[in-house]
Design goal:
Blueprint (H helix, E strand, L loop, with lengths): L1 H25 L5 H15 L4 H27 L15 E9 L4 E6 L2 E7 L5 E2 L4 E8 L2 E6 L3
Parallel strand pairs: 3-6
Antiparallel strand pairs: 1-2, 1-4, 1-5, 2-3, 5-6
Helix pairs in contact: 1-2, 2-3
Length: 150
């Protein structure tokens, strides 16, 4: 049995190193939690504790780290994520190039050199051609816009 325990220490080390390498390669906060679980299981294996205890510790530590530290880690480590694609349009100014009327389902805006279908964020608003609007959200393939004071 001690031979099996020794090989388990090696397996836990391999899992630990693999989790760290994957995390370093992706920087996506995806496998670091399992590295913590593997580290604890590796220590238990080195102490010749039973396999079921090693596996239980791996699962408990990994899930606990994932559950309790993931939200905190995302809050502090993924702060400067650049919004991409259409999400980056939220908050941008646009020019109405075709009257916006939600009831008739009409409206187009020009934002960052591209024309988009648009809809007024406030349901009853009608926004005339030439008005400056702010993109408030995206609903399907339409931008939800609100008229600015300009």
């Amino acid at each position: 049995m001690s031979m099996f325990t020794g090989s388990m220490t090696g397996i836990w080390l391999i899992i630990l190193i693999a989790a760290i390498l994957i995390e370093l390669a992706t920087m996506g906060l995806t496998t670091i939690w399992f590295a913590g679980g593997a580290a604890v299981a590796c220590i238990l294996s080195a102490l010749h504790l039973p396999l079921w205890l090693q596996i239980a510790a791996f699962l408990i530590v990994s899930i606990t780290l994932l559950f309790f530290t993931r939200p905190i880690a995302f809050k502090y480590f993924n702060r400067n994520v650049t919004r991409t694609n259409s999400e980056a349009l939220i908050g941008q100014k646009a020019v109405v190039v075709s009257d916006i009327n939600n009831i008739e389902g009409l409206g187009r805006v020009l934002v960052e050199g591209k024309e988009w279908s648009a809809k007024a964020a406030n349901e009853g608003d009608k926004i005339p051609t030439g008005a400056i609007v702010i993109v408030k959200a995206i609903e399907g393939v339409k931008l939800l816009v609100a008229q600015t004071a300009e």
